[in-house]
Amino acid sequence: MVLPDEELELKRGSEAEEQVERLTPEETKEVEALGAVVREDEKPEPGKMKIDLHCHTEYSSDCATPISLIPARCQSTGIRVQAITDHNEIEGARLLKQRVEDTMDPQDLTIIVGEEVSTTEGEIIGLFLVEQIPAGLSPEDTVKAIKEQGGLVVLPHGFDPLKRFRLKPTALERVIDEIDIIETFNARISNLKWNQAAVEWAQAHGVLMSAGTDAHRLSDIGTAWAEVPYRSIHHPEQLLDALKDGVPAGIWVHPALAFLYKSWDRTLRRLKLRK
Ligand SMILES: [Zn+2]
Fold first, then answer.
1. 246 alpha carbon to ligand 1 midpoint, in Å?
2. pTM metric for this prediction
3. Would residue 275 count as lying in a domain?
4. CA–CA dist 231, 234 (Å, integer)
5. Is the predicted pLDDT of residue 153 greater than 90, yes or no?
6. Contact 250/187 with Cβ under 8 angstroms?
7. How many domains does the chain have?
8. 17 CA to centre of ligand 1 in angstroms
9. Average pLDDT over the chain, rounded to whole?
10. Is 159 inside a domain boundary?
11. How far is the CA of 269 from the centre of ligand 1 (A)?
């Protein structure tokens, strides 16, 4: 029987939850051998906080999450800084940022205005945007438009060949020097090795790593995060600084296995940043 995507995703999600509880000692060993750490407790360590740099809302054509429900979901899952990255659109992010600033304590939640831009050769995320970037530009022009307004360039789900809209490898080679952050943990990746490939690439190129839920449903928010030192993040430099001591982590959902996962913190300490 073929299930529609949404139903299949729900089914996998609930199976995954059961599997997290049922992971045997052997499975735990197997997971740890892949470089992951099974975490019982999702709370950040003292002095740390969780941030998510990739999330969609009702302002994306393939997502129905009302922006009004996002602050409460962030709070219940412990996300303190949430980037909103709708497809080719920043209006929802702007509105939510304003609403959060008007009604909440900045200690509780900060919204970063972002956009997942469809370039002619795949997707690139811009963060801290003021102006919307049009879809359909070349990767070079997209990156230029992000930088011109002081934004940061993030490479989302970069190494999963099953992600249809990933930035093409040949395009990545051309804009490599302009990438500020790479998403090395993506909860919906098809195989753990693609996250691992992203980590290796980040290390080889001295690029900061982060995590993104790529949330298309409210319940996805909180399934991936970077754990960073507790601090205010209102400007690009503050985010880059926080990520230097960050650890990407999350719940990797896989048809056969799901676990809480914390990636490569020891290796991260050895990472030589190019900036
Ligand atoms: Zn996305």
1. 21
2. 0.80
3. no
4. 10
5. yes
6. yes
7. 1
8. 23
9. 80
10. yes
11. 28
From ligand 1's centre to the CA of 54, what distance in Å? 6
- Find the 229 Cα to ligand 1 centroid distance in Å: 25
Widest pairwise Cα distance in the chain: 51
Q: With 60 as the cut, is the pLDDT of residue 34 above it?
A: no
* pLDDT single digits (tens) 197-209: 888 888 888 889 8
Angle between helix 91-103 and 70-77 (nearest 10): 70
Please give the distance, rounded to the nearest whole angstrom, from the Cα atom of residue 164 to the centre of ligand 1: 11
What distance in angstroms lies between residue 86's CA and the mean position of ligand 1's atoms?
A: 7
Which residues touch 139 (CB under 8 Å, ≥6 apart)? Answer: 119, 120, 121, 122, 124, 167, 171, 174, 175
Angle at 7 between CA 6 and CA 13, to 5 degrees: 90
Q: Which domain holds residue 28?
A: 5-270
For residue 188, the tally of other CB atoms under 10 A from its CB is 22
- Higher pLDDT: 180 or 260? It is 180
60 CA distance to ligand 1 middle (Å): 9
> What are the two backbone dihedrals, phi and then psi, of residue 219, each rounded to the nearest 5 degrees?
-70, -15
Question: Does residue 121 form part of some domain?
Answer: yes
The CA-CA-CA angle for residues 119, 253, 202, to 5°, reads 50
Going 144 to 148 to 154 to 157, the CA torsion angle's sign is negative
CA–CA separation, 45 vs 165, rounded Å? 34
Residue 48 is assigned to a structural domain of this protein: yes
CA of 26 from ligand 1 middle (Å) equals 34
Question: Beta-carbon neighbour count of residue 111 at 10 Å?
Answer: 24
pLDDT in tens, 4-21: 544 544 444 444 343 344
Helix (H, G, I), strand (E, B) or coil at 29: helix
